[in-house]
Amino acid sequence: MDSGNGASRLRYAAATTSLAAVPLFATLPTVRLEWLAERCPPRDVHAGATVARFGEPARDLIVVESGTVSATYDTSDGAMVRFASVAGPAVIDKAAVLDNSVHTARWTALTDCRIRLLPVALFRELLDKEPALRGHVLRHLSEQVNRDRRARVRTAASAPVGRVADWIAESTHTHGNRIKLPAAQQGLGEEIGLSRITVNRALRVLADAGAIRVEPRTIVVLDARRLADAARAG
Fold first, then answer.
1. Which residue segments constitute the domains of the chain, with CATH numbers given?
2. Spatial distance between the Cα atoms of 8 and 129, rounded to a whole number of angstroms
3. Three-class SS of 12-75
4. What counts of helices (H) and strands (E) characterise the chain?
C-alpha cells in the first residue's frame, strides 16, 4: 500500500467525519462530504480572533467544526450587545449569506476553533443538488424567525427572573438539561439585556426554587416544570 495514499485517505475520512457532525451536512452522502472537504480546507483560529466583521459582505458560509464563537454588536454609546454564543459543530450566519447581505454582527472566537469557509456559490450549488439540505435550511430560517420573536418578547419582560428562566427553558431545546455558558454570566446578561449582577441574582432565585443548579459556566436544569412556571410568572 502506498503510504502517501493511505495517509490521504485517513485525512479525508477524518474530514468527512467532522463535516458529517455539522447538523447542516448530516444528510449529505460521503461523496459530497469529500467534495466539501477538498474545496473548503480547515483553518485554525485562536481564541480572541475575529472570524467575521460587522458590515463586511457575507461571501462565505462559516462552518465551525470545533470551538465556540460569539456574535456581538457595539452600540454608538459604547455598550456591547451579545446576540448568541455558538458551539461547534455548527454553521453561522446562513441568513446573511443567502441574502447576499453583510454580516450583522462581529463574530469572535471565544475558544480556539477550527473553521471552514464555504463560498456562497458552492453553497448554492449544494442547495440545488441536495433537496434534504434545502429542507434543513428552510427549517432553520423558520426557527430563527421564531427565536428572534421570542427574544423580543423576552427582552420586554419586566422581571429579570422570568427573563432568565425563559432563556434557560428555550436553551434546553437545543442543549438539553446541561447548558454551557461560554461567556459566563456576563455573556448571558449581554445576550438578554441584563447586568451580570442581576443575572446572578436571578439564577440564585431559580436555584433556591429547585429549578436549576449553577456550576462554573454551566446551568443544570433540575425541574423543567418549576422553570417553566418561573418563566410564565415573569
1. 40-146 (2.60.120.10), 158-233 (1.10.10.10)
2. 26
3. HHHHHHHHHCCHHHCCCCHHHHHHHHHHCCCEEECCCCEEECCCCECCEEEEEEECEEEEEEEC
4. 9, 11
Under a CB-based contact definition with an 8 Å cutoff, are residues 198 and 204 in contact? no
To which residue does cell 453561522 refer? 92
Strand, helix or coil at 59? coil
Instruction: Look up residue 222 and give its three cell numbers.
Output: 433540575
**Each residue's pLDDT tens digit, 59-106:** 999 999 999 998 888 877 777 777 778 888 989 888 888 888 898 889
Of all helices (H) and strands (E), which one includes residue 100?
A: none
Whether residue 51 contacts residue 107, with contact meaning beta carbons closer than 8 Å, is answered with yes
Residue type, 160: P
pTM metric for this prediction: 0.69
Contact assessment for residue 79 and residue 72, using Cβ atoms and an 8 Å cutoff: no
Cα 67 from Cα 86, distance rounded (Å) = 9
Q: In this structure, are residues 111 and 47 in contact, taking their beta carbons and an 8 Å threshold?
A: yes
